[in-house]
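Lecture notes, unit on protein representations.

Consider one protein chain, 389 amino acids long.
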Amino acid sequence: MSKKQKTYTAEFKVEAIKLIEANQGNVSETARQLGISMQTLSNWNNKAKTGTLAGTKQYSPDLNALLEENKKLKQQLKTAEMEREFPKKGSSILCERKSVRYAYMKQQRHLFPISFMARLLHVSVSRFYDWLKRGMNKRLVQRNQQTILVKIAHEETKQSYGYIRLTKHLQAQGIKISTYDAVRQIKKLNQLYCKRHKRFKRTTKSDHNRAIYANLLEQQFSMTKPNLAWSSDITYIWTAEGWLYLAAVKDLYTKQVVGYSLNERMTAQLVCNALTMAIRNQKPTKGLIIHSDRGSQYCSHEYRKILEKCDFQGSMSKRGDCYDNAPIESFWGILKNELVHHCNYKTRDEAKADITKYIVLFYNQRRIQKSLDFKTPNQIAENFYRLAA
């Protein structure tokens, strides 16, 4: 049972104000003496000071009446303005059934008072709140929660997943979304679009007379285990300081980027550094096929020396055929589409840090791929070595 609110007469309030004056304006001490809350006594004191507390020496009946009249006029003006504005928004709703009017009231309640809208739309306030309570059923609550989770996942995956991969990503995190259609609808209703692909230039310069390797892969990219074949290439990224070149090495089984190198110059050392990182990380055995295009960096003495030292097999695409090196070309498309084309790098160091973070923390570690049965490259590698142990 709720506690009954205590009321005080006008005379009591006047005497309380006199006691404050006797206590030299000490409101807290006066409230303690009278056994009432300090907030209540402060309210009375403020009214006395402004001349609106009846019975006090500062009280002015004319001023109080004027303030009350001013308050009523303001309220009437506000109501008139709302009545003039509301028909523009809700005139057509009057012809709809009550559930539609309730839904409109819910939509507009941050702009107009509920009681005001109920009067103009000829519905009951209590019925509106009953409808509101019934409307928040379990299914609607679940969809609201799923919408938030889909939005978060959309940003976590760098706005790059379609509804199928996004559903798999959420399910992998233990989130119960049973159908692709639910995620597809949420993405559509909330305009969660994937980043668009943009074209980028190739960097291959095969106009040279250096020795080349034969094409050992012939577009056969399916492998049975890691470190049987790698694919390598160079691309470049624009920054305000000038071009930044990226060489990468990709394993054809795990789809991991196992080595990479970034430099402001596109030299043989760039591809050698990427290959050296891959060798250090993966420790492959002899016979590994390393496929690339016919770029001069891959025909350099330094590059060939590494292959010969490790007893690896070099392999090169046919002239002008990008499909021969499709795995690494696919990675360039993903990198540019999901990251580079949406950034304006001021410095090369900024681009290096961002691209390194993307490769190591997102692409290898978190980005699921349909061709990997919606697993990440790192998961494929971990699963293989766990089963092989």
